[in-house]
Amino acid sequence: MATASREGLEAVTIGRLAEQLDMSKAGVIGPFGSKEELQLETFRAAVAMFTRDVWDPASVAEPGLPRLEAICDSWINHLSGTTFPGGCFLTQAAAEFDGRPGRVRTEVEDVSRFWERVLAAEAKTAVKNGDLPADTDPRQIAFELDAIAQGTNQAIQLRGEKDAAKRGRRAMRRVLGLN
What we know:
The protein has helices at 2-7, 14-21, 25-32, 35-58, 65-80, 89-97, 103-128, 138-157, 164-175. It is mainly α. The protein has a single domain (44-175), classed as Tetracycline Repressor, domain 2. α5 runs parallel beside α8 (138-157) and α8 runs antiparallel to α9 (164-175). The relative contact order is 0.13. The model has no long low-confidence stretch (mean pLDDT 92).
């Protein structure tokens, strides 16, 4: 996962993993079967870490706006933390596979769509609870939060901006009407 976060999932190969583990290629291919399966399992493990870092801490908050705020906080913490040396694994995978066909792209897209549905569902609950205006578009909230997270990741990773996490957090709070 560390290699893929820095170099992309295409850098995750049977040969490279065999070399890193001081094993034969045959010993590595057995559990995975193919490079694509190795990439999919790497991506799934990264999704599990994202879930642990972002969703799990926020899931205990009250549904709606309190949970959205908690998601944003844990998401920014994840982006600015040390989980992956290359930043947000999901953002990296989305950029790498957005124009490629195949099973890895499909899985990356499915996870991205699922996450946006989670965010939209929380925004819809916030509207229902009266915490967001009645004319709020939950899908737009989800889109904007995701865009801010991706931009924050790029500001941290590509440009090395020291205040990117602070700015990303402020932007997310603004989208939620908390500023």
